UniProtKB/TrEMBL annotation:
Co-factor binding comment: Binds 1 [4Fe-4S] cluster.
Signal peptide: none
Source species: Priestia flexa
Pfam families: HHH, HhH-GPD, NUDIX_4
Gene3D superfamilies assigned: Helix-hairpin-Helix base-excision DNA repair enzymes (C-terminal), Hypothetical protein, domain 2, Nucleoside Triphosphate Pyrophosphohydrolase
Protein name: Adenine DNA glycosylase
EC supergroup of this enzyme: hydrolase
Length: 364
DNA sequence: TAGACGTGGGC
DNA sequence: TGCCCAAGTCT
């Protein structure tokens, strides 16, 4: 592996900084989290932007800040409210970690976001990228903030051929950024690198002719910008068969269940469902047995009225959706509720189960 | 280290 | 349609 000193050899650092920052000053997009440098807002935006597009984040960010304008507001909010504000954004542990970290800041740091790498990176959900982003953007500290954009842009500019899918590769880029980051304007340097990756130096067809740092780009010089970055393929998701039931009582209330506080879609609400194992028995039998045993009640299920496929990054759910009627009382537990069609809107559901409800409404 | 962890959009 | 992606972190 090459040393960062060698990679940066003969690179016109100061000219590059100037060209990048000047471009960012005039061409940056107007975004809600760029209206001020409130560390809390920078923090919230950076968490939301993890693996998520800017256009997707904008409405969620505005709504989230309206509901939880300050660290104190978020710290004292019910977790269900926070998850409801996150509903549809994905990677829900981000929301729960953010609230836990905000509580930590409120209790341990008097409500002020700390401004050292050690303290910030200890907060839940704050890794090396977000640490650098908060430090540079909110506090002007020259700390690398290496995300996918930065690795793509710098792999091209500096002709770095390490596989960016490997965790250790991020360290290579962090070392490089340490060498070339502007000490005068680390915020605009880091954001400029990311902005460039988002709107000019894009993955499949980079707009090199519009690029403000084209003169510095080794990949462009050699015509290999399409070959970079090197990124190995991910494994395809595994298929899982699910049987779910929309169960209602005599009043038309829906039976819903809160998922466990760890793992996939933690603490979100859902319709009763089981992972099917066809070697045990029929799907309908397994679903009925599960609901009756686990919820201590009785149900009668009709055959499936729809099939839903939902693709996660690592799993594919194939869901057969049954319609059912509750014929007994349900166990008195916090993770089990009977709610009206109106009340159900107050609960945070994963998109897969929103699809189930939508299909149910079509047939009723 | 590699897998878990979501979703919607682009081509 | 299917695949890849988008401002990563945790275990």
């Amino acid at each position: 592996m090459k040393q960062s000193k060698d990679i940066v050899k003969d690179f016109q650092i100061e000219q590059f900084q100037h060209d990048l920052i000047s471009w960012f000053e005039t061409e940056q997009r107007i975004l809600p989290w760029r209206q001020d440098q409130d560390p809390y807002k920078v923090w919230v935006s950076e968490i939301m932007l993890q693996q998520t597009r800017v256009d997707t984040v904008i409405p969620y960010f505005n709504n989230f800040i309206e509901k939880f304008p300050t660290i104190v507001d978020l710290a004292y909010a019910p977790e269900d409210d926070v998850l409801k504000a996150w509903e549809g954004l994905g990677y829900y542990s981000r929301a729960r970690n953010l609230q836990a970290a905000v509580r930590e800041v409120h209790e341990q740091y008097g409500g002020k976001v700390p401004h050292t790498p050690d303290e910030i990176s200890k907060l839940k959900g704050v890794g090396p990228y977000t640490t650098g982003a908060i430090l540079s953007i909110a506090y002007g500290v020259p700390q690398p903030a290496v995300d996918g954009n930065v690795m793509r842009v710098l792999s091209r500019i500096l002709s770095i051929w390490d596989d960016i899918a490997k965790p250790k590769t991020r360290k290579v880029f962090e070392e490089v950024v340490h060498e070339i980051i502007s000490k005068d304007s680390p915020s605009f340097f880091n954001q400029g690198l990311m902005e460039l990756g988002a709107i000019v130096c894009t993955p499949t067809s980079p707009s090199c002719l519009l690029c403000p740092v084209r003169e510095h780009c080794r990949a462009f010089e050699q015509g290999v910008q399409q070959e970079l970055p090197v990124k190995s393929k991910k494994k395809p998701p595994r298929a899982v068969q699910i049987a779910a039931a929309v169960v209602t009582d005599e009043q038309g209330n829906f039976l819903i269940h809160k998922r466990p506080n760890k793992g996939l879609l933690a603490n979100l609400w859902e319709f009763p469902n089981v992972e099917v194992d066809l070697t045990i028995g029929t799907e309908q039998t397994q679903l009925t047995s599960f609901v009756e045993a686990d919820y201590d009640t009785e149900v009668v299920l009709d055959p499936p009225f729809t099939v839903i496929q939902h693709v996660f990054s690592h799993i594919v759910w194939n869901i057969n959706v049954y319609k059912g009627v509750l014929t007994g009382n349900i166990a008195n537990r916090d993770d089990l509720k009977l709610v009206s069609v109106k009340e159900i809107e107050e609960y945070a559901f994963p998109v897969s189960h929103q699809k189930i409800l939508k299909e149910y409404h079509k047939i009723t």
